From TrEMBL:
Entry-linked SUPFAM superfamilies: Homeodomain-like
Organism field: Williamsia limnetica
Positions of the HTH tetR-type domain: 52-112
DNA-binding region: 75-94
Region feature (Disordered): 1-24
Lineage: Bacteria, Bacillati, Actinomycetota, Actinomycetes, Mycobacteriales
A GO term for molecular function: DNA-binding transcription factor activity
Pfam short name (any one): TetR_N
Keywords for this protein: DNA-binding
Protein name as annotated: TetR family transcriptional regulator
Amino acid sequence: MDPKHTGNSEALPVFDLGSPTPPTHRALPLSNAHQHVFPILESGDSERADAARNRQLLMEAATRLIESQGASAVTMDAVAREAGVGKGTVFRRFGNRTGLMLALLNHSEVQLQQAFLTGPAPLGPGSPGERVDPLDRLIAFGRARLATASAHLDILLEAEDTGPQRFSHPTRTVIVMHTRMLLTQMGFRGNLEVMCMAILAPLEAPAIHHMRTNDSMSVEEIGDYWENLVRALRPPS
């Protein structure tokens, strides 16, 4: 296969996406205080159909609020109004706003993982036989990662304060594996750990927070400068 391109097969043996049981949205904990941060897809017992529908309805309502007004607009009252349900439904499902935001982060992470593992190009591998430039995929992934982290910055900042174990968490491992795979397809060889760390560092919550608050950069500007960095990469001849 041409190393500059990839088909629709993703070489990440982490998710059982072919399981007949729908993947649940359960997270592996980084710490006891953040038991639902940084999720991975797992196959397991599905929710009751009505509970799953209600959850999806509330997640979609909260996502619309973030997209239109920002994360600060996501309150229990606002989500209930947007979803057309009673506030009690939201409280019974999530307990409080923190529970809601953690569930929303989990939902967003799962959607992103599904998109870059199986979705359409350029973020995903595309359809069978489709030739996708790995550089385009890497740029699409970085921008999607940046958007997800920016939308959930407060919760991610709390979760980041967990020490070096965050570097070995399964979800981060998948992100690094995906980045390494794309770099390999771009022609890079050898141990790519340092390069992966350098590429992913600006997409992590503390870096995003610093650039937005200290450097007054917008998410779009961060994404543009990050893309310039990635486009400047050249494998050794």
